[in-house]
Design brief:
The complex is a heterodimer of chains A (about 400) and B (about 40). With about 400 residues, chain A is mostly helical. Chain A has three domains: about 160 residues, no CATH class; about 70 residues; about 140 residues, no CATH class. Chain A is built from 17 helices and no strands. The termini of chain A are far apart. The relative contact order of chain A is 0.08. With about 40 residues, chain B is mainly α. Chain B is built from one helix and no strands. Chain B is elongated, with a radius of gyration of 17 Å. The relative contact order of chain B is 0.09. Classes of the chains: A mainly alpha (about 400), B mainly alpha (about 40). At the A-B interface, helix 8 and helix 9 of A face helix 1 of B.
Chain lengths: ~400, ~40
């Protein structure tokens, strides 16, 4: 049996879960949530997928506990092993270049595994640094497998999830109007995902488009259509799960804030898939940047260190998004955009001063130019998200004359 | 400036909005969405 997101089955399952989880308390509620999550896994992935995904979470929990017990254990080794297992289970395209086909397998069904990996890394790093206390197996499993967020996020922090689940903070006010707001959020999400997104998809660039025969107008409509399709489907889904989560007591974090109004590419990533950006900033960019500045090679070259850390972060982002060559290109393209923006910002501040640049950015022509440039840059980068690998290779060959 | 309405009117308006959205979904929702992000 399979079930698709936002289908009648998913919504019926969600309504039933909300009712049950609202009526139960304590460990029975915890057990019921875990049972609901594993049942949902089985509906989505079947027996093998549910077992392999649950075992991956248990392995993550074991690694976190091992780190808390043996402080001398270096996270770089355990995390590398976990990432290697993740890459193997997801059967990355790139693995075919370095490993014999005989040992590669696509047997694992791994929907949602990338989100689970990021949750495990976050809990491991925070628990080891002492900013996360009182880790419990059942809460951890429900955190990783929560049916609202395990497939497509948003990436919630364990502390936030645990505080809401155990009632230390409230997901929603106990008023009729607050519950009505949550229902409205679900309905709005359904309109976005079920009515507006299919409309945008109907004009979006096709994955198998004959790219060398498209007119400039067809390119523009196709790329803009795909950008809006991605936004409407993903943010619509987020609206639905935020509404459902609010009703049973764990509200996932906000993930979108009108990305098409971003005034620069840095602003774009704080508006688009925001929970991912904050995760990448905390667990990839910041540690890399700090490590580089503490070394001799980059100590007096912060702009270069920042640029390299940005590129690494966006490559990780790209490869996390998907297993094919296009996602690597998607990440690298955004890495280049971010580096260009930060170098430009650095030059402007050196020439005009921080205060003058800040005033300049508040003027409407500057805002308008920023929004138009950012919108088009983001729409262009989604090209690598959309086209399949053979078409992308032909496009790269065409662009670079290879 | 935001329009000031009483709490009761605000809730009534939200209920009407919910009814409109439900009608909209029932009338125009024709197919399930092919989520690009589910592949992750």
């Amino acid at each position: 049996m399979t079930v698709s997101l936002l289908s009648a089955e998913f919504l019926s399952f969600s309504v039933l879960s909300v009712l049950v989880l609202t009526l139960l308390y304590g460990s029975v509620r915890q057990a019921a949530f875990l049972a609901a999550n594993i049942f949902f896994l089985w509906m989505i992935l079947g027996v093998e997928g549910a077992v392999s995904t649950t075992l991956f979470c248990l392995l993550g929990y074991g690694l976190i506990k091992a780190h808390l017990r043996w402080i001398g254990l270096r996270p770089v080794y355990t995390l590398s092993a976990l990432v290697a297992l993740f890459a193997y289970m997801r059967n990355y395209d790139m693995l075919h270049w370095i490993l014999p086909d005989a040992i590669l397998t696509s047997a694992f069904k791994t929907v949602g595994l990338s989100f689970i990996l990021f949750r495990i890394v976050h809990v491991l790093v925070d628990a080891r640094s002492g900013t996360l206390h009182g880790l419990q197996l059942a809460t951890f499993m429900n955190y990783c497998l929560s049916f609202t967020t395990f497939m497509m996020g948003p990436i919630q922090r364990y502390q936030d999830f645990s505080d809401q689940w155990h009632g230390r903070t409230r997901a929603i006010d106990l008023t009729f109007e607050a519950h009505l707001d949550a229902v409205l959020r679900i309905l709005l999400g359904l309109v976005k995902a079920h009515i507006l997104a299919p409309w945008a998809e109907s004009v979006a660039l096709r994955p198998d488009a004959n790219i060398f025969e498209l007119s400039p107008a067809a390119w523009v409509v196709g790329l803009y259509g795909f950008y809006f399709f991605l936004y409407l489907s993903f943010s619509g889904y987020c609206d639905v799960v935020i509404g459902i989560g609010s009703l049973f007591g764990v509200r996932p974090p906000e993930n979108f804030n009108m990305p098409f109004l971003a005034q620069n590419i840095s602003d774009f990533w704080l508006r688009q898939h925001r929970s991912l950006t904050l995760w990448l900033s905390d667990y990839v960019f910041s540690p890399t940047y700090k490590a580089m500045l503490s070394g001799r090679s980059f100590a007096d070259r912060p702009l270069l260190a920042g640029s390299l850390a940005l590129m690494l972060t966006m490559v990780v982002s790209g490869l996390w998004h998907g297993t094919t060559f296009g996602f690597l290109l998607f990440g690298m393209t955004h890495g280049v955009f971010l580096i260009v923006y930060h170098v430009w910002d650095h030059v402007l501040v050196r020439r005009l001063g921080r205060k003058r640049v800040s005033q300049l950015r508040k003027t409407w022509p500057s805002r308008a130019v920023g929004i138009v440039l950012t919108f088009n840059a983001a729409a262009f980068a989604f090209l690598f998200f959309r086209l399949d690998t053979p078409r992308l290779l032909r496009l790269v060959e065409g662009l670079f004359g290879a | 400036m935001m329009l000031q309405v009483s709490p009761r009117t605000r809730v009534a308006l939200k209920l009407i909005a919910a009814a409109v959205l439900i009608a909209f979904i029932l009338l125009f929702s024709t197919k399930d969405v092919d989520f690009v992000y589910t592949a992750f």
